[in-house]
């Protein structure tokens, strides 16, 4: 079997899908995307596939991963690793389809039968967030994450700090003590203010605080982690096991949140999960993306003991009306019930993209850019 070609489809709201083709008719799908850099990643995927993969045997996945990562000399970073991730996902999809088994069977077999997923909650006001959280709880979700605070200055007032704590307290009240609640600072908070916020948030029993500092401040994570009882998480803006390595060695995090679409794909995330297990670090993958990325992430989840929870943004509770799940021939492919998704049993990634619908949607303009925020003095704020 040889790789003969590929196609890329940009689809709403901000995703890029890769179809990798072989001479035997078996195809694989991947989701290579950096939100806000779609056209850049599209070019990188084309360079990788055309430069290194056409004519090659798709089943030599680890060899191809090393070749795509190592042979370019300049390596790593969000663009190249996300392009590599989408290619890697498609190669695993081909291999699973070729052997007639789900990818997790090829990676050692499943260690669980179902996996809890968490739901993002947000809104402009506390009332909006509480209403969304309560509705999601009624729909069966048992774990939640919110991004907060918004624009947050390096030195903030007690009133602003109180506002963050009040929002978290309101969500905790809305979902109850039997639910998990995580908070993502999104890298918006300085080191001194992060320490202050973590102290104030401890009574609310958060499952983690994600990105308490920017990835550029990784050397500060061990100090943050050592002074709080709240599990500290990060990882969606780290792109290989080598970038995660100092966090493990320095005992700087309790949870990592790699994204299968940014961290080099299924191959790298599986190795990263094993690496984290040796340091007693849990894995909660980042994945606010499409169903192909979600399916790829699940394949790692079901063969990794320490991968305990999975992010999703697919409206799993109502697949019939989800525009995201409409990209699949079977929108109910993930089997959501009681806050969990069932183990995928189909070959490859376990899903069948609806190619006709994807081609139809690919005719629209989807080159999304994230908003630019400012502080009240006009300076740029972290988004």
TrEMBL record:
Keywords: Lyase, Magnesium, Metal-binding
EC assignment: 4.2.1.6
An example molecular function term from Gene Ontology annotations: galactonate dehydratase activity
SUPFAM superfamilies named among the record's database cross-references: Enolase C-terminal domain-like (SSF51604), Enolase N-terminal domain-like (SSF54826)
Entry annotated with the keyword Transcription: no
Domain Mandelate racemase/muconate lactonizing enzyme C-terminal: 126-231
Family matches, as NCBIfam families: PRK14017.1 (NF010624)
UniProt-recorded name of the protein: Galactonate dehydratase
């Amino acid at each position: 079997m040889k790789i003969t070609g590929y196609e890329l489809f940009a689809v709403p709201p901000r995703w890029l899908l890769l179809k990798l083709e072989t001479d035997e008719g078996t195809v694989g799908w991947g989701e290579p995307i950096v939100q806000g850099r779609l056209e850049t990643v599209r070019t990188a995927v084309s360079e990788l596939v055309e430069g290194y993969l056409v004519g090659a045997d798709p089943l030599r996945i680890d060899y191809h991963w090393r070749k795509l990562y190592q042979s370019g000399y300049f390596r790593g970073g969000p663009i190249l690793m996300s392009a590599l991730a989408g290619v890697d996902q498609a190669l695993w999809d081909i291999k699973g389809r070729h052997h007639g088994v789900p990818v997790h069977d090829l990676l050692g077999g499943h260690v669980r039968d179902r996996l809890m997923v968490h739901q993002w909650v947000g809104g402009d006001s506390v009332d909006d967030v509480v209403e969304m959280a309560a509705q999601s709880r009624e729909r069966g979700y048992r774990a939640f994450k919110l991004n907060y605070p918004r624009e947050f200055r390096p030195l903030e007032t007690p009133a602003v700090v109180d506002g963050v704590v009040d929002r978290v307290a309101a969500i905790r009240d809305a979902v109850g003590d039997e639910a998990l609640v995580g908070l993502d600072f999104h890298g918006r908070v300085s080191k001194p203010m992060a320490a202050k916020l973590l102290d104030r948030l401890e009574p609310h029993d958060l499952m983690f605080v994600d990105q308490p500092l920017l990835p550029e401040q990784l050397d500060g994570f061990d100090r943050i982690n050592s002074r709080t009882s709240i599990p500290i998480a990060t990882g969606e803006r780290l792109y290989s096991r080598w970038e995660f390595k100092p966090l493990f060695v320095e005992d700087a995090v309790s949870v990592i949140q790699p994204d299968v679409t940014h961290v080099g794909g299924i191959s790298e995330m599986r190795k990263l999960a094993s690496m984290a297990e040796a340091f007693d670090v849990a894995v909660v993958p980042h994945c606010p993306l499409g169903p192909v990325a979600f399916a790829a992430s699940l394949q790692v989840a079901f063969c990794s003991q320490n991968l305990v929870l999975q992010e999703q943004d697919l409206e799993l509770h109502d697949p019939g009306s989800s525009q995201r799940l409409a990209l699949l021939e079977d929108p109910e492919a993930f089997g959501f019930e009681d806050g969990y998704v069932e183990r995928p049993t189909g070959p490859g990634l376990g899903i069948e993209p609806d190619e006709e619908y994807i081609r139809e949607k690919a005719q629209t303009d989807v080159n999304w850019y994230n908003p630019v925020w400012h502080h009240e003095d006009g300076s740029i704020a972290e988004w």
